[in-house]
Design brief:
It is built from 7 helices and 17 strands. By secondary structure, the chain is an alpha/beta fold.
Length: 317
Amino acid sequence: MQRLLVLLALAEAVTLAYADDSTEEPHWCYEIQATELNNNCKGPDHWPGDCQKTHQSPINIVTTTARLDKNLGPFSFFGYNKKEKRVVTNNGHSVMVLLGTEVYIAEGGLTSQYQATQLHLHWSQEVDRGSEHTVDGKHFAMEMHIVHEKKTGTSSNKNVLQNPNDKIAVLAFLVEVGDKINNGFQPLVNALTSISKPNMSTTVNEINLMDMLPNEEKLRHYFRYSGSLTTPTCDETVIWTVFKEPIKLHEHQFEAFSQKLFYDQEETLTMKDNVRPVQQLGDRQVYKSRAPGQLLSLPLPTLLVSTFAYLMVSLLR
């Protein structure tokens, strides 16, 4: 009981922090809210803090220009396989799940261990408008972010620990709509009816993070770049990992988010299109991990032709 009360108190604190990163008035909101009559809030073009700087997120990932980084190996996931009681809340901008203190990641090209704090999602009512990041210009139905904070004392490189640009590591998962129920997501979907209004929270008994994700072998394929939070104050302190393999949800699971959640206490505006517009990449470089078994520097047909030509020349000598 005491642990549950602590989690609920933490949920309220994180909700307030996530929903109001700035003391400025009017409050920040998404474009769909800003266009509502009598809604005195700041849309994305007027967000405060660092939101108007040049290394912002999300971005469009152009796969043909992503540069291979051999240091981007597989992640190690700790605590992701545990079925734990989690606090789930509607923070007025998204649905958020608190992840406690025993979930963290390492490796994956990161210089330290990063402790998971929460996950949240972005979505639309349409299957091609709900992701924040795009891949070759394509939007997905949803996007899930698992947010991690750097754990101090987990790197032997003191200069790395002092780097102000990698305080947070976000794992981003794009979501597609399919024809099969995603059982790993169902506990979260079931909880939505209990948190329809902002600042409402509930507890879910069995949320297993790894069950919500694609097969772990598929998590070797990802893109990496440096960016920002996608909500105010848009701090440029985030190492982004965007996984290539999407999560798949059933149509009914996907629709539940925009049908059961609301931006307002009066339940007049359903929560959807909570997506920040794509930002300019600027002078940044997007990197990609090496796929397992990716040893050939040339396409296989080209390599076979070259090998055959070499053998023929050798035989004619």
